[in-house]
Design brief:
Length: about 120
């Protein structure tokens, strides 16, 4: 498997995570409440990320199809927004790690091998 390094690897992994989140939201739209609750908590300490949280809030208040289309998009705006994604907790740890394993850190490859 070819590895991708640096920011590109992180952005591609984030997109894969959000595509999995979109799939889960299609099956369990009630999981949107997790994102809404996260936004409420995060606003208390948002600082410079407040404009991003405001954007997420607007998307969460809109039609589900528009939100799903947006979080699955690989455009520059969504790449930036995914850095402050409110969807923490929607995927299970197992679902998350399955995606993480598809995007290994090239600096850590082989570090767990025994001699």
């Amino acid at each position: 498997m070819e590895t991708v390094s640096g920011h590109r690897r992180i952005d591609e992994r984030s997109l894969a995570l959000h595509r999995a989140i979109a799939d889960k939201l299609r099956e369990q739209p009630e999981s949107l409440q997790i994102a809404r609750d996260n936004l409420v908590r995060w606003r208390a300490t948002a600082g410079r990320s407040l404009p991003y949280l405001d954007e997420w809030q607007r998307m969460l208040e809109g039609p589900l199809d528009n939100l799903l289309s947006a979080i699955e998009s690989d455009d520059e705006r969504m790449t930036a927004l995914r850095q402050s994604s409110p969807f923490a907790g929607v995927l299970t740890p197992r679902e998350r790690w399955a995606i993480y394993e598809r995007f290994p850190n090239p600096n850590q490859l082989g570090t767990h091998q025994t001699k």
